[in-house]
Amino acid sequence: MKKIRYFIVSTIVLCMIFALTIVTYAADPYLSFGSKTGNVNVKKYADKYNDTWYGLTSQTYNSSTGYTTKFTIKVNARTISEDATNFNNFAKSTVTHEFGHVFWLCDNPNTSKSSIMKYSRNRNSMTAPQTFDVDNVNAKYD
């Protein structure tokens, strides 16, 4: 089972902290989340990419331990600016969605329940993981 080593605070709190960091365009493009057992290297980038995506996540994990060792989230300010009616919420929704991938949540789950991972969500208003998302993260780490 793949685990994330620093799963110390609630999913919602961690996602919102990370989302706010992206939206405020912190001067330092590198973050490091620590835990009692080590660090996870995090890179975040907010830029105007020529691609069509809103956000993109890549991650590396140690195959022997299953722990995530590094992840990168890119946020495309160009596509968000073009499509958002509420830029800050849209950006938070995008980052929270991308952060869901770090917790092994898949895109566009086949459910009638509300989910930050759904493509059909209203990115201008949904900015936090929903009950369905939190339940799935908890199930993966039980």
Automatic annotation (TrEMBL):
Residues 1-26 form the signal peptide. Keywords: Signal. It comes from the Bacteria. The keyword Ribosomal protein does not apply. GO terms for molecular function: metallopeptidase activity. This is Peptidase M10 metallopeptidase domain-containing protein.
